[in-house]
Specification:
There is one protein chain. With about 200 residues, the protein is mostly helical. It contains six helices and three strands; from the N terminus they run αβαββαααα. A three-stranded antiparallel β-sheet has the order 1-3-2, with helices on one face. The two termini are about 35 Å apart.
Length: about 200
């Protein structure tokens, strides 16, 4: 259901000549989202990276797809070769069947590199997302404190809760950095510099 709505939204933007299409990962899988990015490219929209449409610190950010110079030709050609795609049929570069985002062997490498680019971009969002949560959390805890009273035991409980969340954020940041390093290495091995001239913050 999510895939069909995303594909329809992409095709609507293509029909009206939009220079950019924004999409979230609604597939519950980053590998499937990378496969969707491959499909989008067949219809004339190339993955560009994080979208400015995303709220700061969003756990499910938007990603931008930029319209290619030959978008019309690509979309027409893809529609001719896969006329049933918009009705739930086979998608370009994907295997037929129930799971419509399984890459064909010839598309697998391109999808893997798209997946690596997306994971690098997503990994770079963790720091800001976690910091915002840590800043907001003390203000949220003021609500129960105002009812229970600002007693030393209550303050200790709130401090302990904040420290637990801080530890989880730090662990998440460590995992995000490892993920960033892993997929950056994949891209470098393939001769792909992504994002160009940018190091992880």
């Amino acid at each position: 259901m999510f895939l069909q709505s995303q594909l329809n939204a992409l095709l609507r933007d293509g029909a009206r000549g939009a220079e950019r299409h924004d999409a979230r990962n609604l597939q519950r899988s980053w590998s499937k989202f990378a496969a969707f990015a491959y499909v989008a490219e067949q219809y004339g929209y190339r993955y560009e990276g994080p979208s400015s449409l995303s709220p700061k610190g969003s756990p499910n950010p938007y990603f931008a797809f930029r319209r290619m110079p030959n978008a019309v030709e690509r979309a027409v050609s893809t529609a001719d070769r896969y006329p049933a795609a918009v009705q739930g049929g086979q998608l370009p570069g994907m295997l037929p069947g129930g799971n419509r985002l399984r890459p064909l062997p010839e598309a697998r490498r391109a999808v893997e590199l798209l997946h690596a680019r997306i994971m690098v971009d997503y990994s770079r969002t963790h720091r800001r997302r976690g910091l915002i949560a840590l800043v907001i959390l003390p203000f949220i805890m003021l609500i129960p404190l105002s009812q229970a009273g600002f007693t030393p035991p209550a303050l200790l409980v709130c401090a302990a809760i904040w420290l637990v969340f801080a530890a989880l954020w730090a662990l998440g940041l460590l995992l995000a950095r490892r993920r960033y390093a892993k997929y950056s290495k994949v891209l470098r091995a393939a001769g792909v510099q992504w994002p160009a001239g940018t190091a992880m913050k």
